[in-house]
Design a protein that fits this description.
single chain; alpha+beta; Helix Hairpins; Heat Shock Protein 90; 3 domains; five-stranded antiparallel β-sheet; 13 helices; rod-shaped; disordered N terminus
């Protein structure tokens, strides 16, 4: 006897943004999900190799059993009558499904249970077995290679019958103890032999068993585990693809919509809101849709503002150009002086427009950087009214009286003091400009139901209901007949409403209480909690 020794990657979304992201990130989200689940399955598949330790444990138990069987048979042969020894040997071999061979002190064969009785087992011929048995043997060899199992001697039927063919007999004789050996049958099933001394005359007994059940139990365990892993693999693939579709498809739809919005090729492109999804993807889609809508509104507002600016500047420029052209042709000094006054007025009007347009264009940026803090709106209004009354250069000092009235309740709000002061100045400028000589502008501050309200009323003609929203449009200006043309740009109330809305408030126009003539502009802001002071 002698020893016998990648998952394909899905195509990216066909957009420039997606292709660039692909080159940077390298692996799609779908492939990552599949890879993560594949790692878990690979760890589960690794349990195939742990079955080798199970096989070793079973073989160790069989070695103990083979040792015990050989020693018990040796005792039975020692105690049996010489005439009964062959019968005992045949009976034990048949019942225990062993091949028992007895040798004398010189190594000669005394008896062989396979010759005394029909053999209880036979070695399988690998050439006559089904294909799956061949596959199982290949798997066994592969596991042995991976786990680094030592080479096992292959069992071959010895051509001679002497004890010299079995090295375990010589070792057992020298050690005066039982020796157990393992070999592989032609079908790669374990062949366990145990050699043990018999009696005191130097006889040796060799017990041989083909432990096919050991191999079959290990293969059955591998088969069951393989089926479990296969089913788990199919379920994992399906669940991974479902998860990828659930996550990746809406994200790709958002990417495509974002690219179309960025390129500006389709003004009416609809960003999916995914209302049926209540998870983070749905929240992202709706936030993205709202952001896109707000961005479009901001762009539309900028475009509309630019058009309005061009229109508003065109009128005084045309008037200025006409005055300057006419001035060159006029000889009359009085008329030339009148034209010069018109030109100067147009220059002042243009300067005023540019200043207020610049303020209006910066208002959003200023509000985005502003830090809101608790402040008393009534105190702020009182300071603004007091400051106006103390200015010696105020044009309405002698023509209009401004009165401050403090209503009931706390007037604490969260906001930017400078911006809210600007709102009050614009409201007072508007009220003063519409008040008749000797009129009164009244500022009232009070609180109600968690809101702080500030009302500015005047004695002017009032604002018709149909015009009350239009007055908040940029460059919309309906001025009193007594006011000089171009004295106001029509941006004051538009700026005031923008600041009010940035403070989560509102600015509206109503009739004066009691049906008195005039207009009332009401600024409403949320009240700040007392713990925010």
């Amino acid at each position: 006897m002698a020893p016998d020794t990648a998952s394909p990657i899905p195509d990216p979304v066909r957009t420039p943004l997606r292709r660039r992201s692909w080159r940077v990130r390298g692996v799609s989200l779908t492939a990552r999900i599949l890879a993560v689940n594949g790692i878990a399955l690979a760890l589960l598949a690794g349990s195939f190799f742990y079955l080798d330790s199970y096989r070793k444990q079973v073989l160790a138990e069989r070695f103990k059993l083979a040792r015990a069987e050989a020693e018990i048979a040796a005792i039975a042969l020692t105690e049996a009558m010489p005439a009964k020894r062959r019968e005992v040997l045949a009976n034990i071999g048949t019942r225990q499904k062993l091949r028992l061979t007895l040798y004398d002190a010189k190594g000669g064969l005394i008896a062989d249970s396979f010759r005394l009785a029909p053999p209880p087992f036979a070695f399988a011929d690998p050439g006559k077995e089904a294909w799956y048995q061949t596959a199982a043997r290949l798997l066994d060899r592969g596991v042995d290679v991976v786990v680094g199992a030592p080479a096992i001697e292959r069992y071959r039927e010895p051509p001679e019958t002497g004890a010299a063919n079995w090295p375990e007999i010589a070792r057992a004789r020298d050690a005066h103890a039982t020796e157990v050996y393992l070999r592989y049958a032609p079908d790669r099933t374990p062949v366990i032999t145990a050699a043990t001394p018999v009696g005191s005359r130097g006889e040796m007994l060799l017990a041989l068993r083909n432990a096919r059940d050991v191999t079959q139990s290990v293969r059955d365990a591998r088969q069951s585990l393989g089926i479990i892993i296969g089913v788990a693999f199919m379920l994992s693939i399906q669940l991974s693809l479902f998860l990828a579709r659930t996550i990746v498809q809406p994200l790709r739809a958002l990417v495509r919509a974002a690219v179309r919005v960025r390129l500006g090729r389709d003004r009416a492109v609809v960003v999916p809101r995914l209302p049926e999804r209540g998870d983070e993807i749905g929240l992202l889609a709706r936030a993205f849709s709202d952001m896109t809508t707000a961005l479009r509104q901001r762009i539309d507002a900028v475009e509309s503002f630019a058009a309005d600016v061009a229109h508003e500047l065109k009128n005084p420029l045309a008037s200025l150009s006409s005055a300057l052209e006419t001035m060159e042709k006029v000889e009359d000094p009085a008329l030339r002086q009148q034209l010069a006054a018109i030109a100067a007025h147009d220059v002042q009007r243009i300067d005023r427009l540019i200043t207020e347009i610049a303020d209006a264009s910066r208002i959003d940026a200023q509000l985005s950087r502003a830090t809101f803090a608790p402040l008393d709106l009534a105190q702020l209004a009182g300071d603004v009214v007091g400051a106006r009354g103390a200015r010696p250069d105020r044009p309405d000092r002698e023509t209009c009286r401004i009165r401050m009235v403090r209503g009931g309740g706390a007037a604490l709000v969260r906001g930017d003091a400078l911006q809210l002061e600007r709102v009050l100045e614009n409201l007072l400028d508007n009220a003063v400009s519409f008040s008749p000589p000797g009129g009164t502008v009244e500022v009232v501050v009070w609180s109600s139901e968690g809101r702080v309200l500030l009302a500015v009323t005047d004695d002017g003609p009032g604002v018709p209901p149909a015009e009350r929203e239009k007055v908040f449009e940029r460059f919309h200006s309906v001025r009193p007949a007594s006011e000089a043309f171009g004295a106001h740009s029509g941006l004051g109330l538009a700026i005031a409403r923008t600041i009010a809305e940035a403070h989560e408030g509102s600015l509206t126009i109503t009739d004066r209480p009691g049906g008195e003539p005039g207009a009332q502009l009401v600024l409403e802001l949320p009240m700040a909690g007392e713990d925010e002071e």
